[in-house]
Amino acid sequence: MSKILVTGGTGYIGSHTVVELHHAGYTPIIVDDLSNSNMQILDQIEKIIGVRPAFHQFDLCDAAKVADFVNSNTDIKGIIHFAASKAVGESVIKPLKYYHNNFFSLINLLQAFQEKPINFVFSSSCTVYGEPDTLPVTESAPVKKATSPYGNTKQVAEEILAETAKAHDNYRVIALRYFNPVGAHKSALIGELPLGVPQNLLPFITQTAIGKRDKLTVFGGDYDTVDGSCVRDYIHVVDLAKAHVAAIQLLENGNPNGNYDVFNVGTGIGYSVLQTIAAFEKVSGKRLNYEVGPRRDGDVVQVWGDVSKSSKELGWTAELGIDDMMASAWAWEKYLKENPIG
Questions:
Q1: Into how many domains does the chain fold?
Q2: Whole-prediction pTM value?
Q3: Domain residues for 66?
Q4: DSSP SS3 for 258
Q5: What general EC class does the enzyme of this chain belong to (predicted)?
Q6: DSSP string, 110-144
Q7: Confidence bin at 216 (pLDDT 50/70/90)
């Protein structure tokens, strides 16, 4: 079947999507600069699917290298674009890093493929909704001023893609607005692998439980939510990976909504940080050492998605629940203790 370029394919979501593309009969080709991932993940993917995906290491912000790659791989039929800086908190501290990396990589890809018909799936985010007026948030909700530079890069990237698809019929684009990916592959061979101190909740939970971290800090306990902590729509990373396969398939079959479309990708259920901690403790049997600290700049109070459009038009629905998310993340953390990567 079709060759699909997966940028950031050794990263967390990218590696799981490479696996699901293979299972669906596609041939994934990975481009990654390994700035936020590890070469050993290729070995792990090979253990799962039985073949080693084609891999190219370079920075997508290098326009000449992107052009050379595209000219040497003329049979690519689709792109799933993950490669981007992604930590909300870091983006507040290092905004220029986020604007440079996230925009140049996208623009270079689009320019390199501008003469070729291409199906393009973009890794977007529910951060484009900002602090929603109503919940659950639908795809028709207004895009609000971003609460972080990371969120702003997703908003502007969606605008770039929509305008490019409008101007050039060869681009067929779907932007998937993720909620909060967590969990790991059922084999426990791939999962979230943060470099340094984790920026996301669940790896901090599992690292605290395994003893890598002394304690977990909950950022804010006085929000107007069920228990004072922020609320998020957590989605299992394998379900999220399958959504990308569904998006490629919809583009191949001709999306009736036209050359540009957006879909929420979540479970439609909101869990607070404290509820998520409790779910992990129940599944793992571990008691976590955590404290409630001050609020963190850039955090939205609560958001979860209306995913009915994804179910009806994308033909995709999340299948794995919060217990699956916690159990698989914990299995991955325990695997890493015995089999360190990096």
A1: 1
A2: 0.97
A3: 3-183+235-266
A4: coil
A5: isomerase
A6: HHHTTTS-EEEEEEEEGGGG-S-SSSSBPTTSPPP
A7: very high
**Residue 15, domain member (yes or no):** yes
168 lies in a domain? Answer: yes
Q: Convert the pLDDT of each residue in 178-209 to its tens digit.
A: 999 999 999 999 999 998 888 889 999 999 99
Strands 54-56 and 118-125: unpaired
The answer to whether residue 106 is domain-embedded is yes
193, part of any domain: no
Distance, in Å, from the CA atom of 100 to the CA atom of 244, rounded to the nearest integer, reads 25
Q: Long-range pairs for 33-37 at CB < 8 Å and ≥24 separation?
A: 33/57, 33/58, 33/59, 33/60, 33/83, 34/10, 35/59, 36/11, 36/85, 36/86, 36/195, 37/8, 37/10, 37/11, 37/12, 37/193
150 assigned to active site: yes
Amino acid found at 152: N
CATH number for position 11: 3.40.50.720
User: Does the pLDDT at position 298 exceed 80?
Assistant: no
